[in-house]
Amino acid sequence: MLSKKGQKEGTAIAVVLIIIAFFMVLYILFIPPEERNKILEGNNNNELDSTNNLLSRIELLAQSPGVVSPATDLGQIHPIPSISLFVRTEPSIEQLAQNLIIKKGLFSSSNPKLKFPSEDVENTKRVTLNFYVNDAKSGELRIKLNGRTIYSEELSKGAQIVDINKNLIKENNELEFIASHPGIAFWSTNKFELKNVILKQEFERTNTQETRQFTITKAEKQTLSKLNLKYTQVCNKLLNEGTALLDISVNGRRAESLRIFCITTDQEIEIDPNLIIAGQNTLRLSLEEGDFSFNQISLNTQTSESKFPTYQFSIPAKEFDKLKLGDKKAVLEVYFAQDNKQKNARIDINNNEILINTADNFFSRDVSDLIVDGTNFVRLIPSTTFTITNLKIVLGE
Fold first, then answer.
1. Whether residue 339 sits in one domain with residue 289
2. Which residue of 165, 243, 310, 326 sits 20 to 30 Å from the alpha carbon of 123, by its own alpha carbon?
3. Overall number of domains in the chain
4. Please, are residues 60 and 367 in contact by the beta-carbon 8 Å criterion?
5. Residue span of the structural domain in which 357 resides
């Protein structure tokens, strides 16, 4: 038989157990249904659900792109040295004598000779002899060039210009000045005093075309979509006419032909990419007339995005029906290398853009609305360099 003290202790324990049970029931009633099911059904059901979820996942796409980069492949700038093209006249002025006395008489005569070179006979355009007649006393002044008479005139005071046939010019030349004989007035003297005897030669300088080389890599050529020639045009001398013809060719084939004005301006011309070859290429500029400089020349290439990773996947018709009914959903999953780097990229799914901007090691997005029946296309276009270990599109519950 229990003592009264034992009965009291047993009653107290029973009361405590009832209170604990009451609060447990309240806890189970007020927790979320998912957690309640886990408690009531046990861990076996959890493991079964996880297994069922894994079995229901269908990987529509699974790729390992590795290191991806925005790459300068989108455009390359090929700098080219400046080019100067011109058709111009350059003068050369030489004083042959400051004072010159030419005379012919019975008892005295003076036939001075002046020598001068011609630095570029082939490109000589014009030659003139300029002098001032300070004094002239009857008769004719005769001038010979290399033994051939080029001038014979009676002179009066003043400036004189004598045009010399450029075909008579040699590498080394001699001018001889002769006064005519007095004739029947043999006692008199024909005399001429010349000042500032100047020879002016004009040479035509031409550099109407120049070539430059540039190199296009095989990879760049394969994805080349656009090519622009950029340059700054500087006009150094006014044109005789309003415009000049400029021809631009690439690898011996005409790329552009245009009329240019005598202005300083920046130009950009689109070149047909088909003129370009992989390896060394030749750019040639040809000028009809004028005097121009072409500076800050560059050939700027643009390549297509076909080098960026592009993938295809198909979805079975039955699964697509479930997707559209909402029974399943498609999720884009991107797994990055665990480097905590910033990842910036654009993923195009059937021309629908998804932006990635994260430093995390995982990115996901519901893409159910972007999936189409049949073949789907995915293109990865990175803005920074990073590593993708797995790129997936998963179909699941």
1. no
2. 243
3. 3
4. no
5. 308-396
